[in-house]
């Protein structure tokens, strides 16, 4: 999704990522999920920085697909609330106001989409319960 570039700098975005992960890894609910998944932190920071660079500066550095990545993680809805709380705090601290507002809006929108995709429906009951129409 491309939006007009904000006044953030790459340096501020790097700082956003650094401080956000400092907080996320100090959080007892989020840390185990990162510990179990991320083996190469430099690469992870770079990928996430590229993502925010695309969102806030309209660069084309991130070309991944965040939804399938998160759909495979053992997440509950409350993980997103905690994540967003830490992200809002960090974004307001590190980014200029226009960029903070855009980053927070994007994260909130993604959290809503992720939650809608991941938690809206009960698990598929399986083919045994399906009856073909006659
Ligand atoms: C809506 C809020 C979120 C945003 C915007 C976001 C953003 C991202 C992005 C851009 C990536 C890189 C995906 C890629 O490899 O292409 C990522 C990966 C990851 N995120 Fe999130 N994330 C969010 C919520 C969460 C939450 C709640 C958790 C729970 C701890 C989480 C844990 C992870 C982990 C563990 C990875 C690495 C997965 C892997 O390397 O296999 N994220 N996230």
TrEMBL record:
It comes from the Bacteria. Coiled coil: none annotated. SUPFAM superfamilies: Globin-like. Pfam families: Bac_globin. Keywords: Heme, Iron, Metal-binding, Transport. This is Group III truncated hemoglobin. It comes from Methylococcus capsulatus. The lineage of its organism: Bacteria, Pseudomonadati, Pseudomonadota, Gammaproteobacteria, Methylococcales.
């Amino acid at each position: 999704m491309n939006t007009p570039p904000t006044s953030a700098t790459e340096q501020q975005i790097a700082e956003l990522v650094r401080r956000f992960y400092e907080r996320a890894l100090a959080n007892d609910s989020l840390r185990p999920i990162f510990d179990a998944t991320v083996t190469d932190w430099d690469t992870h920071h770079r990928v996430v920085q590229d993502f925010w660079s695309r969102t806030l500066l309209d660069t084309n550095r991130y070309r991944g697909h965040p939804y399938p990545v998160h759909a495979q993680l053992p997440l509950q809805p409350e993980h997103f609330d905690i994540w967003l709380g830490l992200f809002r705090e960090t974004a307001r601290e590190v980014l200029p106001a226009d960029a903070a507002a855009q980053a927070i809006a994007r994260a909130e929108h993604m959290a809503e989409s992720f939650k809608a995709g991941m938690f809206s429906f009960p698990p598929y009951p399986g083919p045994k319960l399906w009856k073909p129409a006659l």
